[in-house]
Design brief:
The protein is α+β, with helices and mostly antiparallel strands. The chain is built from two helices and two strands, in the order αββα. A hairpin with a 2-residue loop joins β1 (78-90) and β2.
Length: 202
């Protein structure tokens, strides 16, 4: 704890600071809980997206494997051209949100390629969309986790440093002011007890 002045002015300053910290702490604790809940929700959505991607891959592999004689037909068939995102606010944190993707589909000869290539384009687009969506969730989790770390640090600072320091300062100042008041009363009594003796001597 830093050196404090043992005065009534300092006592008021420490008391005001304590009230301020005690007022802000519950808000910080609530924000911490909200951020923790949001992270859990984001992780759950990311896992759900991963499961959807796996399901599409399994379904794709199941039938493409039966008909595909040339793997080069699928390789590089669909590429992501653009990812459209928006923004949202979670407990004061601005995060990106997934909207859609724009793809670039390689031109193929409709007469020289199997009919299932169209289905492969659709499935590949779905997989790419889910991958981009999952990447956005990862970025959301990173941003919210950063804010959670800062909020947790503030909560710890208030709980373990600021509030205890203020309480200790108030305690020390009150003791010092009480001792000073007691000493002043004692000095007053001693001074009073000497006055009659001086009057008698006169």
């Amino acid at each position: 704890m830093a050196r404090i002045r043992l005065t009534k002015t300092e006592l008021k300053a420490q008391t005001d600071a304590l009230k301020r910290f005690q007022r802000f702490l519950p808000m910080l604790q609530l924000k911490k809980q909200q951020l923790q809940a949001e992270i859990a929700g984001i992780v759950s959505k990311a896992e759900e997206t991963r499961a959807q991607e796996t399901a599409v891959r399994v379904a794709l592999d199941r039938w493409v494997g039966l008909f595909a004689t040339d793997e080069s037909l699928i390789a590089g068939l669909v590429k992501v051209k653009d990812i459209r995102t928006g923004t949202a606010n979670i407990a004061g944190v601005t995060i990106p949100t997934f909207e859609s993707i724009e793809t670039d589909v390689r031109e193929v000869d409709a007469w020289a390629t199997p009919a299932w290539v169209d289905d492969a384009v659709e499935a590949t687009t779905k997989i790419l969309s889910l991958q981009c969506k999952r990447a956005i969730y990862e970025e959301q989790r990173r941003l919210v986790a950063e804010e959670l770390q800062l909020t947790s640090q503030r909560v710890n600072l208030f709980e373990k440093v600021k509030i205890p320091d203020c309480k200790e300062a108030i305690r020390v100042i009150k003791i010092a002011l009480g001792d000073e008041q007691t000493a002043a009363v004692t000095r007053g009594k001693i001074a009073k007890s000497r006055v009659p003796k001086e009057d008698e001597a006169a």
